[in-house]
Amino acid sequence: MHKKYIHIDMDCFFAAVEMRDNPKLANIPLAIGGTVSERGVISTANYPARCFGIHSGMATASALRLCENLVVLPGRMSVYKEVSQQLHEIFLRYTHLIEPVSLDEAYLDVSNSSCCNGSATLIANDIRKIIFNETNLTASAGIAPLKFLAKIASDINKPNVIYVIKPCEVIVFIKNMQIRKIPGVGPKTEERLLSMGLKTCADVQCYDFSSFIKEFGKFGFSIWQRCHGIDDGPLCIDPPRKSVGVEFTLPNDIYSWDKCCSIIESLYPELESRLIIYSPHKNISGHGIKFKFDNFKLTTHNHAYPILDLTNLLSIAKNAWDIRREGRGVRLIGLHAYLPNQLKMKQLQLNYN
Ligand SMILES: [Mg+2]
């Protein structure tokens, strides 16, 4: 069975978010980057700016020389992170095998996904549609049986498109592919390759292995492998999450249980919405509260419980408030829930089957 990898890449992400939030920026050359006085560089340019030859990594000063009307914004990292989290939540509806590459880029392994009848192409199109509906931003997607090919595919015909490399097309695709398309091969390596008469992967396939490694070393081995259609294997998945939580530092220390109670009630919906990303039915192995007192001492109070529940959390909190506070003011309140032990759940399912 072939693997099915999807590489999702948002189209000029930082700039696209700014254009979405301020339509006046939509059709003018726009870039996100540092200022000239800080010797800043461009991190993202929109398409009108790219028409002037402006690209990421370029010094802001050079970009302004190419286009004097270029609008350069410092960027709003917290907003980009929020959108990135939204994207991650969309991916999770299709698979838990996600390798985030950056805020706007991720690999998904949908080899065993039953969504969309298991079609990676339909899943990718679904994801692109949902991203647009929920964030008003466009994404490109590449699909391939090899990870690095999925990344190369997502860059073909960008923006707002999907490109599929079918398993039966891999051999021909790689043969004709220019080596510089391989992630990590920059202009300097390309120059050296060209000087050796190597332009396409087919050229490398015909080249002597030991001379190639002698010339390019360890990195050469990775180029060699990719030119021969060998991938670097499964995704690097985050370790499974054990808990979710929310915390709030109070503007003033509090001494009244009623106030504490209303703060917990206001934090609860956020905890709930974070939990359902990982546990849609709010199943947990336990939950609890955290207080930081006015002398900065911390206390946590946990309780084994099968489902997230506000009334139960409040009674845990009341307990800690009465027994552990000892008259001190409270400066921080946190709520957390422990996710069910995945391994135990699997074993239980096996036992029931
Ligand atoms: Mg991108």
TrEMBL record:
<keyword id="KW-0227">DNA damage</keyword>
<keyword id="KW-0963">Cytoplasm</keyword>
<keyword id="KW-0234">DNA repair</keyword>
<dbReference type="GO" id="GO:0006261">
    <property type="term" value="P:DNA-templated DNA replication"/>
</dbReference>
<feature type="site" description="Substrate discrimination">
    <location>
        <position position="14"/>
    </location>
</feature>
<dbReference type="InterPro" id="IPR022880">
    <property type="entry name" value="DNApol_IV"/>
</dbReference>
<keyword id="KW-0515">Mutator protein</keyword>
<feature type="binding site">
    <location>
        <position position="104"/>
    </location>
    <ligand>
        <name>Mg(2+)</name>
    </ligand>
</feature>
<dbReference type="InterPro" id="IPR001126">
    <property type="entry name" value="UmuC"/>
</dbReference>
<dbReference type="GO" id="GO:0009432">
    <property type="term" value="P:SOS response"/>
</dbReference>
<dbReference type="Pfam" id="PF11799">
    <property type="entry name" value="IMS_C"/>
</dbReference>
<feature type="domain" description="UmuC">
    <location>
        <begin position="5"/>
        <end position="186"/>
    </location>
</feature>
<dbReference type="GO" id="GO:0003887">
    <property type="term" value="F:DNA-directed DNA polymerase activity"/>
</dbReference>
<keyword id="KW-0808">Transferase</keyword>
<comment type="similarity">
    <text>Belongs to the DNA polymerase type-Y family.</text>
</comment>
<dbReference type="GO" id="GO:0005829">
    <property type="term" value="C:cytosol"/>
</dbReference>
<dbReference type="GO" id="GO:0006281">
    <property type="term" value="P:DNA repair"/>
</dbReference>
<dbReference type="InterPro" id="IPR043128">
    <property type="entry name" value="Rev_trsase/Diguanyl_cyclase"/>
</dbReference>
<dbReference type="InterPro" id="IPR043502">
    <property type="entry name" value="DNA/RNA_pol_sf"/>
</dbReference>
<dbReference type="Pfam" id="PF00817">
    <property type="entry name" value="IMS"/>
</dbReference>
<dbReference type="GO" id="GO:0042276">
    <property type="term" value="P:error-prone translesion synthesis"/>
</dbReference>
<keyword id="KW-0548">Nucleotidyltransferase</keyword>
<dbReference type="InterPro" id="IPR050116">
    <property type="entry name" value="DNA_polymerase-Y"/>
</dbReference>
<dbReference type="GO" id="GO:0003684">
    <property type="term" value="F:damaged DNA binding"/>
</dbReference>
<protein>
    <recommendedName>
        <fullName>DNA polymerase IV</fullName>
        <ecNumber>2.7.7.7</ecNumber>
    </recommendedName>
</protein>
<keyword id="KW-0460">Magnesium</keyword>
<dbReference type="Pfam" id="PF21999">
    <property type="entry name" value="IMS_HHH_1"/>
</dbReference>
<dbReference type="GO" id="GO:0000287">
    <property type="term" value="F:magnesium ion binding"/>
</dbReference>
<dbReference type="InterPro" id="IPR036775">
    <property type="entry name" value="DNA_pol_Y-fam_lit_finger_sf"/>
</dbReference>
<comment type="function">
    <text>Poorly processive, error-prone DNA polymerase involved in untargeted mutagenesis. Copies undamaged DNA at stalled replication forks, which arise in vivo from mismatched or misaligned primer ends. These misaligned primers can be extended by PolIV. Exhibits no 3'-5' exonuclease (proofreading) activity. May be involved in translesional synthesis, in conjunction with the beta clamp from PolIII.</text>
</comment>
<dbReference type="InterPro" id="IPR053848">
    <property type="entry name" value="IMS_HHH_1"/>
</dbReference>
<keyword id="KW-0238">DNA-binding</keyword>
<keyword id="KW-0479">Metal-binding</keyword>
<comment type="subunit">
    <text>Monomer.</text>
</comment>
<feature type="active site">
    <location>
        <position position="105"/>
    </location>
</feature>
<feature type="binding site">
    <location>
        <position position="9"/>
    </location>
    <ligand>
        <name>Mg(2+)</name>
    </ligand>
</feature>
<keyword id="KW-0235">DNA replication</keyword>
<keyword id="KW-0239">DNA-directed DNA polymerase</keyword>
<dbReference type="InterPro" id="IPR017961">
    <property type="entry name" value="DNA_pol_Y-fam_little_finger"/>
</dbReference>
